[in-house]
Design a protein that fits this description.
single chain; Enoyl-CoA hydratase family protein; Enoyl-CoA_Hydratase/Isomerase; six-stranded mixed beta sheet; about 15% strand; 2-enoyl-CoA Hydratase, Chain A, domain 1; globular; Enoyl-CoA_hydra/iso; alpha/beta; about 250 residues
Length: about 250
């Protein structure tokens, strides 16, 4: 009998449920399997009286590379991401993300959906979709709700890579990684009721936008993935060559 290693590992550290994305072979891609385990772990943390907040972190050099197209296909990936972002927003306990490596595509949606996020000096960020014939459709929801829309237009359109200082400046990331201990200490000092009630206020705009636009954006993303241009863009990426439209 063979057993499959978990894709999300769980520990507890003084009232903080630490959930670790542990699928480095595919750069912690948001497959339906990984997201299912993550949602289950979040549900467990929500029901535990001793847990004050959740810390979402990762193994390997990448926090998350976004959807797992090989495992789930173009239709399922965007829907899975909408489900996960809604789960995080509705959780009655704060979710803090720690990115110590690269964050790409849908992984940026996951990062922005968390209530608080920190990133290390070696972290890099890129909305690479436009270079592949795609768009950051679903990931744009929390990014545009919580961040600088004018700056997001540049990074969405150009696909350039940027670092932690810029991610903090535009609101994609809350603070550098060295702020993490103070953030967790503050959450440990807060009352469970106070945290839940306060989070309801901070996530209300995100939940409204997810309800209004999430399904349509997931469908738009699937249509783009199914196009000939996107197929060529993904092929070029996998073959490590420039797509034909690159000048």
């Amino acid at each position: 009998m063979t057993t499959t290693a978990p894709l999300v590992r769980r520990d507890t550290d003084r009232g903080i449920a630490v959930l670790t994305l542990d699928s480095p072979h595919n750069r912690n891609a948001l497959s339906a399997a990984l997201v299912g385990e993550l949602i289950a772990a979040l549900d467990t943390a929500a029901g535990e009286d001793g847990v004050r907040a959740v810390l979402l972190t990762h193994t390997g050099t990448t926090f998350s590379a976004g959807a797992d197209l090989k495992a789930d296909g173009p239709e399922r990936g965007p829907v899975v991401l909408v489900e996960l972002m809604r789960q995080i927003a509705e959780l009655p306990k704060p979710v803090v993300a720690r990115a110590a490596g690269h964050v790409r595509a849908g992984g940026l949606g996951l990062l922005a959906a968390c209530d608080i996020s920190v990133a290390g000096e070696s972290a890099t960020f890129a909305f690479s979709e436009s270079r592949l014939g795609l768009a950051p459709a679903v990931a744009s929801v929390p990014v545009l709700v919580r961040g600088d829309e004018r700056a997001a237009a540049r990074w969405f359109l150009t696909g350039e890579t940027f670092g932690t200082a810029e991610a903090v400046r535009i609101g994609l990331v809350t603070a550098p990684e060295d702020a993490l201990d103070g953030i967790l200490a503050g959450l440990r000092a807060a009352s469970p009721q106070g945290l839940a009630a306060t989070k309801e206020l901070t996530v209300a705009p995100l939940l409204r936008r997810l309800a209004a636009d999430g399904p349509d954006l997931a469908a738009r993303s699937a249509r783009l993935f199914a196009s000939a241009e996107a197929a060529e863009g993904v092929r070029a990426l996998l073959e490590r060559r420039q797509p034909p439209w690159a000048l």
